[in-house]
């Protein structure tokens, strides 16, 4: 993947879970995901307490890596 952007690559991973996390942050908001990026990454890769929470399966390794690559690439909108 050449360029990873929030709109094309990250938001689609999170849209279906927006409602369950609105009490804390809006996972479809670029500004809010950017502001909480490290916290989000820590939880999507947490083997003991992963997000999305049960009964949903964790994000795949490729999806986790895409989020990391988005962070490392400067969190483009
Ligand atoms: C990819 C999807 C999701 C992401 C990125 C995500 C992210 C996060 C993050 C970063 C926290 C920690 C907040 C903090 O420490 O202030 C959290 C907590 C929480 N999330 Fe999610 N979440 C997702 C999906 C879900 C879903 C689907 C549910 C419910 C089925 C859920 C329920 C909760 C609950 C109850 C907490 C508080 C308890 C805890 O920290 O374990 N989340 N989530």
Rough outline: globular
Report the sheet with the most strands, covering strand number, pairing sense and barrel closure. none
Q: Total number of helical segments?
A: 5
Write down the domain tally: 1
Average pLDDT, all residues:
97
Contiguous low-pLDDT stretches (5 residues minimum) are none
Proportion of residues in extended strands = under 5%
State the end-to-end CA separation.
Answer: 15 Å
Radius of gyration: 12 Å
- The computed structural class is mainly alpha
Tell me the total number of β-strands.
0
Reading the helices and strands in chain order gives: HHHHH
Bound molecules: protoporphyrin IX containing FE
Determine the fraction of residues in helical runs and give it as a percent range. 40-55%
């Amino acid at each position: 993947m050449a360029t990873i952007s929030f709109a094309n690559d990250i938001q689609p991973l999170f849209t279906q879970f927006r409602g369950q996390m609105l009490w804390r942050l809006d996972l479809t908001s670029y500004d809010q995901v950017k502001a909480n990026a490290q916290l989000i990454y820590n939880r999507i890769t947490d083997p003991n307490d992963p997000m999305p929470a049960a009964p949903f399966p964790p994000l795949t390794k490729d999806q986790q890596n895409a989020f990391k690559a988005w962070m490392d690439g400067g969190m483009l909108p």
